[in-house]
Recover the amino acids of this structure.
């Protein structure tokens, strides 16, 4: 007999967890506060570690079916705004990368949920003492386990007393997807300027997912609403900033509908949490370890969290000491890995956003001098992940 599990939030982390647990026979209910569980968003890059995790819960092929080869097979790495290459990633660093439109990813994950297991328009609150009781719009619900996957601004994290706060990364990010196919000339990846970056990632159908960043010193905080809906003003702003950058940077923006450009001030958690677990309530994904997008690993880590928990619960630990031991192992394994990646991601972002001409010259010089083997090693370290062995009873 499976466990009764409540999942707070139908983001990537919550959906992968729910589908994985249901596949193993657990009875799962997902609460999503938004009225619609789909997403618009833009694109996403997932690396080999995310696919190892998706495979561990039986979802890898579904996601492969809607994703493309991303940067694999392309000349990828870092360029200057003039188009001159600073660093070319060796093929092994991008071989496992795949790109997907967020809406497609959500669609395939939602399709795997058992009918009737998702409640939308359902903002819920966890119990501060970690007991597996949820306050829902329809009253209290008791489960064997509650998993809070409620994102960067997680109220669960605060209610559980585990919050360390969020902090701005010091830059804003725009994202968009071209309306139709766009030829990137076999080249992709990021272009680093002074306090500005632009990234190009082809999607499976030939459209291009792009992102752009700009340093925002002293920008007003907007904690309640970090993402601005698409607006023509944002389209103009990004078009103007990157107008003189190499091809096809301006073309990517021109080929995107004016109302489809999203802007988002980037934040991560102020400090790693002391725990991802309290009693029988678990934090997962951005709620546990929101990191900057500079390694392209936020969703990948949410998926790893989900797969780790699914695998650890496969040993059917019951609801007593066995469950406590499984959750302690989840906490130990996931906190260690995500703290390292969050730190590294923030560092990459800080280096990428450098704007002083001298600092940029040094950065670019170091990038040019870095051997391809070192770039491959760094990528391999980030992307190396295997599911835990299930606990013995
Ligand atoms: C610019 C940018 C680019 C990125 N690019 C990449 C990339 O290329 N690769 C990558 O791996 N990651 C990337 N990320 C990170 C990735 O988007 C996130 O890490 C990932 O989406 C987190 O998923 P999640 O399920 O933890 O949280 P979310 O997706 O935030 O989902 C949380 C869900 O919980 C719901 N919710 C919140 N509170 C409640 C409540 N009280 N009750 C019920 N529901 C609730 C919300 O409505 C939401 O649906 C990027 C992020 C940014 C900002």
């Amino acid at each position: 007999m499976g466990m009764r599990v409540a999942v707070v939030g139908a983001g990537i982390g919550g959906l992968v967890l729910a589908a994985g647990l249901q596949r193993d026979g657990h009875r799962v209910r997902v609460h999503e506060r938004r009225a619609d569980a789909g997403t618009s968003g833009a694109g996403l890059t997932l690396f080999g570690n995310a696919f190892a995790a998706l495979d561990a819960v039986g979802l890898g092929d579904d996601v492969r079916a809607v994703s493309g080869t991303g940067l694999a097979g392309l000349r990828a790495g870092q360029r200057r705004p003039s188009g001159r290459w600073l660093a070319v990633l060796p093929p092994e660093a991008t071989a496992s990368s795949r790109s997907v439109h967020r809406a497609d990813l959500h669609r395939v994950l939602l399709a795997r949920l058992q009918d009737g297991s998702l409640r939308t328009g359902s903002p819920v609150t966890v119990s501060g003492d970690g007991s597996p009781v949820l306050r829902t719009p329809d009253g209290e619900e008791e489960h064997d386990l509650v998993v809070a996957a409620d994102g960067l601004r997680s109220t669960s994290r605060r209610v559980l007393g585990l919050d360390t706060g969020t902090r701005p990364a010091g830059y804003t990010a725009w994202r968009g997807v071209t309306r139709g196919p766009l030829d990137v000339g076999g080249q992709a990846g990021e272009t680093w300027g002074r306090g500005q970056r632009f990234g190009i990632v082809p999607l499976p159908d030939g459209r291009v997912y792009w992102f752009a960043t700009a340093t925002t010193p002293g920008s007003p905080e907007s904690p309640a609403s970090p993402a601005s809906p698409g607006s023509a003003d944002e389209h103009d702003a990004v078009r103007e900033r990157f107008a003189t950058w190499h091809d096809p940077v301006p073309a990517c923006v021109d080929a995107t509908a004016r109302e489809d450009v999203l802007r988002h001030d980037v934040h991560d958690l102020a400090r790693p949490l002391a725990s991802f677990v309290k009693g029988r309530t678990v934090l997962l994904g951005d709620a546990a370890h929101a990191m900057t997008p500079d390694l392209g690993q936020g969703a990948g880590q949410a998926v790893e969290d989900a797969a780790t928990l699914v695998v650890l619960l496969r040993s059917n630990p019951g609801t007593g000491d066995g469950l406590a031991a499984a959750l302690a192992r989840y906490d130990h394994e996931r906190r260690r890995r995500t703290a390292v990646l969050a730190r590294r991601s923030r560092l990459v972002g800080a280096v990428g956003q450098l704007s002083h001409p001298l600092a940029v010259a040094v950065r670019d010089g170091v990038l040019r001098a870095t051997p391809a083997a070192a770039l491959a090693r760094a990528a391999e370290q980030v992307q190396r992940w295997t599911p835990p062995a299930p606990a013995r009873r």
